[in-house]
Structures are given as structure tokens and as C-alpha cells.
Sequence to fold (226 residues):
Amino acid sequence: AQTVTQSQPEMSVQEAETVTLSCTYDTSESDYYLFWYKQPPSRQMILVIRQEAYKQQNATENRFSVNFQKAAKSFSLKISDSQLGDAAMYFCAYGRTGTYKYIFGTGTRLKVLA
Amino acid sequence: DTGVSQDPRHKITKRGQNVTFRCDPISEHNRLYWYRQTLGQGPEFLTYFQNEAQLEKSRLLSDRFSAERPKGSFSTLEIQRTEQGDSAMYLCASSPPGGGQFFGPGTRLTVL
Fold:
């Protein structure tokens, strides 16, 4: 069975600095997707970034980028120039191609310090 | 608003009562998903539909839970004979054929 592990329950970053959130996963599939979702307090989940496993190039969305290491089954999220609005729970998710059923990690709470 | 909507946003019920939640997906999204999220955890998959067909159900979905998606549009999730362990946030998401799920705001259920 597929699993997703986020080993950092909480992280802090100074405003304007860079922070990296870790995620590892386990799967025997070769074709899948990985995602980072942001869930602000009492608000709905928002897709931050998406990575297709067949692509070697790391995905980038403005200040958000990933380091996808397929052999190591690692998928970390880097947030550059952190802003107060980045404070939220961040969930890493695995989606198997075809069903797109997602398996989520337990989340990392990111605090941004002014 | 063109996002995923869920109703109600909050539901408080007494143990043993039945509750029903509704999810309206983004128009033309053929896949619809239900997840359950408890405090401090990530969402857990419950079930999903492709159009009106329910294609997969999690072991988490006991016999007291039933989901429908008539006509492949909105979906309902019913919990019968609620238990305190059912207290959670119930999330709905939809996705187009190419994938990428968009989540609704969730329905927070409290069972007293």
C-alpha cells in the first residue's frame, strides 16, 4: 500500500526567508502524481504545486518549487521569500494515475515570523 | 462562485441520528471524491465517483455510510446512526478528466 510521510509536524521561518518542507512516500507504482496542498486555518485546501512522476524537471510555481527525487521517493517543497500569508498546514499527497485517489501525509504546520 | 461547494458547513447532531451532507462539484468535473479529516491528520479517502458510478470505497466507509451521485452532478454523503467517532471534517473534492483535485470548504460534523 502507498504511504506518505511528513516527518516535520511544525516548522517556522522568518518573513522573507526560505523554508523547505519534507515529504517521503512509498509506492510500487511507476506512474503517479505528487502534490502539495495548503490549508489555512479554518479555510479550504488549496493546490500549491503538482509534479508528474514521469517528468524529471522539478515543478515551479512562482515562489514555490519542489525537489523531486524519484529514486529516493522524496518530494520536498521549498518556499522562497516567505510571506505572512504562507502560514498554514501543508499537506503532501500522492495520487495514483487513473483513479487520482489521493493519499495524504499528516501535514506540516508552517509558522511565518514577522 | 465556480468552486466546489458543500452544505451544511457545520452540523451538530446527537448520537444515533442520521445526517446527510451535500457536495456540488465544479461544473464539468467528472470525478468527485469524499474524504474525512480528523484533527491533526491529513484527509483520508472515503470514496469516489466517476460521473454517476461509484468506483471505489475505502474500508473506512462502514455500512452506516452511503454516498450517491445521481445524474453525475452533485453528491450526497449520508451517515446513519451517528457515533461520536464520526465527528470530523468531511471534505469533498472534484477533478476534471486530467486530474488535479479541487477541494470544497468541508462540512464539520460534531456528534454529541
Observations:
- Chain B has no helices and eleven strands.
